[in-house]
Amino acid sequence: MCGTMDALTGVCALRALDEAVHEAFAAWCEREGGSLRAWRVAFAVDCTFAVVAGPFDEPAARRVLGADVRCERPPALYLSVEPATQRGAALLEEALGGRGAPTGVQLERRARALLLRLATERTPYALVRDLIDLELISNGEACAVRLLSPVPLRTVAAIAATGLGADISPRDVLEAHL
Fold first, then answer.
1. Main-chain phi, psi angles of 144, to 5 degrees
2. 157, 102, 155, 170: which is closest to 130 by C-alpha?
3. What are the tens digits of pLDDT across the range 74-124?
4. Which of 42, 36, 38 is nearest to 17 (CA)?
5. Mind listing the domains of the chain with CATH numbers?
6. Which 3 state secondary structure label does DSSP give 74?
7. Residues near 128 by beta carbon (within 8 Å), at least 6 away in sequence
8. Nearest to 4 by CA among 64, 69, 52
9. Which distant-in-sequence residues (6+ apart) come within 8 Å of 74 by Cβ?
10. What is the distance between the alpha carbons of residues 69 and 13, in angstroms, rounded to a whole number?
11. Whole-angstrom Cα distance, residue 83 to residue 78?
């Protein structure tokens, strides 16, 4: 077990988990003296993402979730990258998944998309976004990029503001109103 009540642990379970597991995990977090702050299932990459505050016992979490998990402090940013073609996927795998990938970036093929893990304290999102654009646009390719990590709205707003080159407040993020 590690961490203090203020510490956040990012959890990536390597399969899509159901609501019963969600409820069991939330109850386990509370029994252990922490709290489940966020939970999101991403079927496109067959993963479930969570953020836990407080003490965290990784082997016990694996047992409760019934899945292989990746745990990180601070929580990493996870994105689904969905190129329009296999050629686009290959270009991105070479640029972001190979030996020349930026520090703190990992890319792997999962289900029907590419799962991108980004340690933002080591590499800014804007750099990765620009690399994706450079690889795909210069080769006539396109893709969809979706945020998978359950992150605070201020982080979503900051990412959107960077991409659009405009000020955006958290109250302007559509997902906050859904």
1. -105, 140
2. 102
3. 889 999 999 999 999 999 999 998 788 899 999 999 988 999 999 988 998
4. 42
5. 8-72 (3.30.70.260), 77-177 (3.30.70)
6. coil
7. 96, 102, 105, 116, 118
8. 52
9. 8, 10, 121
10. 4
11. 16
